[in-house]
Structures are given as structure tokens and as C-alpha cells.
Amino acid sequence: MASKLNIILFAIKNLRRKMTRTFLLLLAVTVVTGTLFSATLFISSMQNALKIGTYRLGADVLVVPSKYESEARAALLAGEPTSFYMDRSVLDKVRAVEGVKRASPQLFIKPTSFTCCFSVEAFLVAFDPATDFTITPWLERNLKKPLVGNQVITGRNIPVIVGDTMPFFGTPFKVVGTMEPTGMKFFDQSVFMTMDAAYQMAENSKTRAIQPITIERDKISAVLVQVQEGFSPDRAAIRIEHDIDGVKAIASDEVISTVRKQLGGLLKGILAISAVLWVLALLMMGFAFSMIVNERQRELGLLRSMGARKSHVFKLIVTEAVIISLMGGLVGLISGSALLVTFKNLILHSLKLPYLLPPVSTLIELVLGAVIFSMLTGLLASLLPAISASRMEPYEAIRKGE
Questions:
Q1: Which end of the chain has the smaller Cβ count within 10 Å, N or C?
Q2: Which residue ranges make up each domain of the chain?
Q3: Per-residue pLDDT reduced to its tens digit, 129-150
């Protein structure tokens, strides 16, 4: 009885004797652990995607036509393809605003249905290589050369490889690079080309495409802005809207804070539900182990009379609870992950938020945290019953258990 191994084996045998009760206790821990783990992983993945995607965007402020603010936000956060245009003169006006360090134009183009990819809704984004600070740094770091002619780079979710040809509005484009995943559809499901290539594509579509597109060379969709040191994005956005009529300046901080508020509210709700489930699990396990101690008074008294110490009885009850919690925690991890994978796309479609799994180190921390949490649940639930069992006098326990 003194050895740790015997206590573990004895605890396992005791749990096998009451399989229904053991299963119900295991299920309670599984539900709590699975809910908390999947929710925490989901929130962490969205925060990770937001962080990486915002870094890749590289802009402090996005300037768009005021009446297309909602479409611009949907394009940025959910990657929803859209097309809208404003006069190119807005670019020079933005550059003249106090606090603006750099400004670069972009074109947003929504391709016709089934233009290139049957499984992904692609989004065409054209940039100016001479002033761009979003795509150009990636090109310099990975391709070591700029895009020329009808060359494009694609997001990770576009089902093509380097060397493939993609037709848009009757013009073939050659894929020369694929970007790393960011979790933001604005990057992962977009095709990036130069603005000259986009304007030429629009001109050629009049004779080559079934559904031509019209984009005048004096039109742009948005202006990406980097602000000077000492100016906050919010302050620059206010100045831009004050100085330029008909535009909406969306600060990246504003977008991030809005999403974080959504995530914060979601996380609070999940934590509240998890807390209720955890308390119920604690009460259920505590009540169950109190019943177990009462049922096994004679058995525990015989163990004491055969030489088992109080500490052995205490460890036996706690070990049974920890085994149940550990098994429930592992099952909860597996079931929670499976549910997250199954319903992830449905949830993301409803929330319209970015998603990218966090680094391996963070995943390991989440898994270890969930396992420790589940074991702590069993330990706390069994603590009082274990103390009560260890204080029983052998003769009294045997007599009451008869």
C-alpha cells in the first residue's frame, strides 16, 4: 500500500467497479475542458490573425469614398471582394494633409464569377510599385524583383502555384509568387497586380471579355497612409476627413479596437458559461466522491486496519479524482478541437473576422493549461471527501460500513 504505483493501480480498479458513475464524472470534466479550450484557441487564433494581418497591411489609415465605408471595412476584415472608385486627385490631397508621411493608392476589383478559381472567391487588388509599402516589401524580401507586365502574386488560399496562368476579364496573368498565410482574407484570398496591369486589363476587356470592366486611369479605390512620428492614426484620420470632402479615413487602430471589443465581449460570455459549468462540475464531483467515501467506509476501514496510513487513504481518493480529471481533460481537448474544426468556417462566416492558428509554442501552452486546469478541477472536488476519509477511525469505519 505504501508505494505510489499500488495506489494508482488500486484507484483504477475502484473506478472500473462503477463505470457509469466514472463515465458521468469524466463527461463533466470533458465538457468544461473542451468548452474552455476550444473557445480560448478560437479567440487566440483571431487575435493572432489580426496582429499578423495588421502588420502586413502596414498602413495607419485607409482613405476610401465616404459612401463605401462599410464595403471597405468588409473587404479589409472579411476579404469580401468589392469594387468602388474615387478620383485620383484625392491622393495628392491626402499627401498634403499635415501628419501624413507616405500615401499610396490601391485599386479594388471584384472579378466576375468563376473567372479563375472555383473554390475561392478571389479579390483583385492593384498597387502602385513606386509608392507602395504593403506588397513591395514582400516582393523585395522574397522575389528580389518587382512585378512586371501581367505578373501577379497570390494569397495562400488561392488554389494556384507559381507558374500557373490566371485569366481575369480576358487577360491572362502569370503567378510568380504566393504569400504566407495571414488569416485575413484580404491577403489570403487576393490576387495582387500593378495598377498599370489593372488599367490595361480594363482596356483589353472591351474586346476580350464577355463581361468587360471599365476603370479609368484617373480612378483609384483607396489611399493607404502612414503617419509621421508624433501623430496618432486617429488624429491623422480626423485631419484627412476635415481637409478632404467626400472621403472616410479609417484608422487601423479603430478597426483593431472594434474587433478586440467584439472578441472581448465574446470571450467574457464564453468565460461566464465556462465558469458556471466548472462550478457545476466541482459540485457534481464533490458530491459524487462524498457518496463514494460513504459507500466505501468498510473498505477504507479495513485498509487502515491492515496498515494503511491516513495519507494513503487521502492519496487514494485524490488519485481517483485526478485520473478522472486527466482522462476528461484529454478527451475534452480532442473533442473541443474536433468541434472547432467542424464549425470554424460557420462561425467565421457569421462573425466575419480573421482567423489564423497561433504559433506552436502558444498551442503547447494552451494544451498544458487545459490539462492542468482539468486536473486541478478533480483535485479541488475531491479535497474535502479525501480529508474526511483520511480522518476515519478504522474500527468506526468498519462498523458503520457493515
A1: C
A2: 4-51+259-401, 56-250
A3: 999 988 888 888 888 888 999 9
